[in-house]
Amino acid sequence: MTRINVTVDGVGYEDEVEPRTLLVHYLRESLGKTGTVIGCDTSNCGACTVHLDGRSVKSCNVLAVQADGHEVTTIEGLAQDGELHPMQKAFHNCHALQCGYCTPGMIMQAIDVLNENPDPSEEQIRVGLEGNLCRCTGYHNIVKAVQEAAGSGATAGAREGAQS
Ligand code: FES
Ligand code: FES
């Protein structure tokens, strides 16, 4: 077992983990952060996307020990003071989901896309989201939501923004 210190959604945790434990399993099973979901076993669906020090990563592709000393933000850490993050609001407004399984990862990735480029073209949004699969929507409303969020000036959550 290896001891890690990690901050998740603004709260510090000190835990013993197996060196092979994936970050997604640590988040879900040790911390109960089940908003971060697993949609494949091949690292290609993006459903497990979280932010590690403000940049999106597929948490099934990162070991928990690699998060030692770092800050993780999950979909559960985006709302501030009971207010949804602008990207969450945009997904709601644009009906950018059906079953919702891809949505946590899609929102985390979409925020990363706007952090990189606050005014992306439709093509740039589609390229930015290409690592996230949606089996329901056909992507149109997801792209619209990211465009709406871009128009509202949405970037990272206040917590991440405060640290950058
Ligand atoms: S569960 Fe991580 S990419 Fe699919
Ligand atoms: S809304 Fe069902 S997978 Fe995207």
Structure report:
- It comes from Pedococcus aerophilus.
- Residues 2-78 form the 2Fe-2S ferredoxin-type domain.
- Keywords: 2Fe-2S, Iron, Iron-sulfur, Metal-binding, Oxidoreductase.
- Pfam families: Fer2, Fer2_2.
- This is (2Fe-2S)-binding protein.
- The chain is α+β, with helices and mostly antiparallel strands and 164 residues long.
- The chain folds into 2 domains: 2-77, Ubiquitin-like (UB roll) (Roll); 86-157, [2Fe-2S]-binding domain (DNA polymerase, domain 1, Orthogonal Bundle), CATH 1.10.150.120.
- It has helices at 23-30, 86-93, 103-116, 122-128, 140-151, 158-163; strands at 2-8, 11-17, 49-52, 55-58, 71-73.
- Strands 2-1-5-3-4 form a 5-stranded mixed beta sheet, sandwiched between helices.
- A hairpin with a 2-residue loop joins strand 3 (49-52) and strand 4.
- The chain is globular.
- The termini are far apart.
- The mean pLDDT is 94.
